[in-house]
Specification:
alpha+beta, globular, about 25% strand, 18 helices, binds glycyl-adenosine-5'-phosphate, seven-stranded mixed β-sheet, 23 strands
């Protein structure tokens, strides 16, 4: 991506819409916040990303696939800790009804005001030794304002002199409350509390509850993994940055079941393997990095965790999480279901709950990272071209077939080529407009190769192949096109 970073997201959103990659959900009704639709080119790109992930992760003997249902028994989410812990602390403005996640609100308030508010709060509780004891640790944290803001008892006091960033009024904030991010619905015709089910906030739990089913039916032995791609839903308060944080998205998750003593080895293995996947599919190496989670910020299920981050135009952002989830999930499901999820090791004759190393990538977030990474603006012969330099395996259209002119037998040859290639590839036939314009249209769609039928094709049955990134053209026989493409589409 070499274009100016400041307006890159706007350009990407506009290109995505214009070329049919991504549309706003329910656009004709004004859109639905945090939801997006994938258009003709977008759905191909997304499918290709998922397909590449599936092949990389499951075309090996120690990983099996699974497709579990989105709706699961509500006890699953009690066992997993999501009912209790999958929450964001929020405050509302009583005046304008705006709702803020406390860390986001904290970022909106300037440092001077925060220091003053903390000082006043400290002075107001100084005579109450019970409160001083209770909150002394909170004042010592790295970000005392956010920490105290999460506290239901003190949040109103802390915000007393702070203006609402939306309506500007003072003393209008509610106490901080926990807001669960899971979407609820009802199963069956009666809408009461016994019928509540959740749209899954992660695909992982479908894997854990099927651990023994998969292990015994596929006759796997530890270490082995189960992979799944599917939709997940989170009622995010602040959706932002296009596809980065949405309410409906897809995950590509793999849970690797291991002996507890091997956890460090497999954690390192999967860290390396997952980073390599992004690089192999062409993502710029120096825009990728690991971000290890500090112990204090670990999710409730994790012993260690790292994110693979991509440098988006708005800063570094997580595209995949790798977690050592220990035996937390399987033990919890044993406890809540009353069923054993222990594994019997033939060699040691031991029965134990395996540890799990999880790799959890967002398909939609990876889509956005691949899209941004591929976007270039280049000057070619005094004109700007925008081009999406997707890895050929990810490119939505693999090749465009272009008769130079729409006469003299060229369309007939081009249509024959199209018919042949269509059997194996997503191709596009275009006979409209000047050839240069047609190439530009394909550049913008990310098509890696254009096959052009010209006058020479009529004489010697050859065509030119124009390569998207270098814009170089070579001449090859018509009956060599398929093997040329096959070769280029290898990893
Ligand atoms: N099972 C573990 C888990 O769900 P996570 O870090 O919450 O971990 C994993 O999510 C990945 O899912 C993230 O790295 C991101 O790519 C994707 N993801 C999470 N929330 C998302 C959202 N609201 N919108 C788009 N992608 C999201």
């Amino acid at each position: 991506m070499s274009a100016d970073r400041s307006d890159i997201i706007d350009k990407i959103v506009s290109l995505a819409k214009r070329r049919g990659f991504v549309f706003q959900s329910s656009e004709i009704y004004g859109g639905l916040n945090g939801c997006w639709d994938y258009g003709p080119l977008g759905v191909e790109l997304l499918r290709n990303i998922k397909e590449e992930w599936w092949k990389w992760m499951t075309y090996r003997e120690d990983i099996e696939g699974l497709d579990a249902s989105i709706l699961m028994h509500p006890k699953v989410w009690e066992a997993s800790g999501h009912v209790e812990n999958f929450t964001d602390p929020m405050v509302d403005c009583k005046q304008c009804k705006a709702r803020f996640r406390v860390d986001v609100l904290s970022e909106m308030i300037n440092e001077k005001k925060k220091t003053k508010a903390l000082e006043e709060l400290r002075n107001s509780i100084i005579d109450d030794s019970r409160l001083v004891d209770k909150y002394s640790d909170a004042f010592q944290t790295e970000d005392p304002f956010s920490t105290i803001l999460e506290d239901a008892d003190l949040s109103v006091k802390l915000l007393h002199e702070i203006n609402c960033p939306q309506c500007g009024n003072k003393s209008t904030f509610t106490t901080a409350r926990k807001f669960n991010l899971m979407f609820k619905t009802f199963i069956g015709p009666v809408e009461d509390s016994n019928a509540v089910v959740y749209l899954r906030p992660e695909t992982a739990q479908g894997i854990y509850v099927n651990f023994l089913n998969v292990q015994s039916s596929a006759r796997q032995k530890l270490p082995f993994g189960i992979a799944q791609i599917g939709k997940a839903f989170r009622n995010e308060i602040n959706t932002k940055n296009f596809l980065f944080r949405t309410r409906e998205f897809e995950q590509m998750e793999m849970q690797f079941f291991i002996k507890p003593a091997d956890d460090k080895k497999w954690y390192e293995y999967w860290k390396a393997e997952r980073l390599q996947w992004f690089k192999t599919l062409g993502m710029t190496g120096n825009k990728l990095r690991y971000h290890d989670h500090p112990r204090k910020k670990l999710a409730h299920y994790a012993k260690v965790a790292t994110d693979i981050e991509y440098e988006f135009p708005f800063g570094w952002g997580e595209i995949e999480g790798i977690h050592n989830r220990t035996d937390f999930d399987l033990s919890q499901h044993e406890k809540f279901s009353g069923k054993s999820l222990k594994y019997f090791d033939d060699e040691s004759k031991e029965k134990f709950v395996p540890y799990i190393i999880e790799t959890s990538a967002g398909a939609s977030r990876s889509f956005m990272a691949f899209f941004i990474d591929a976007y270039y603006e280049e000057e070619v012969k005094g004109e700007m071209r925008s081009v999406l330099k997707f890895h050929p395996r990810l490119a939505p259209i693999k090749t465009a077939i272009l008769p130079l002119v729409n006469k003299d037998g060229m369309p007939e040859i081009a249509q024959e080529i199209e018919k042949e290639l269509r059997r194996n590839y997503k191709v596009f036939y275009d006979d409209k407009g000047a050839i240069g314009r047609r190439y530009r249209r394909q550049d913008e769609a990310g098509t890696p190769y254009c096959v052009t039928v010209d006058t020479q094709s009529l004489q010697d049955k050859t065509v030119t192949i124009r390569e998207r990134d270098s814009m170089e053209q070579i001449r090859i026989p018509v009956d060599g096109i398929s093997s040329y493409l096959n070769d280029k589409l290898k990893l």
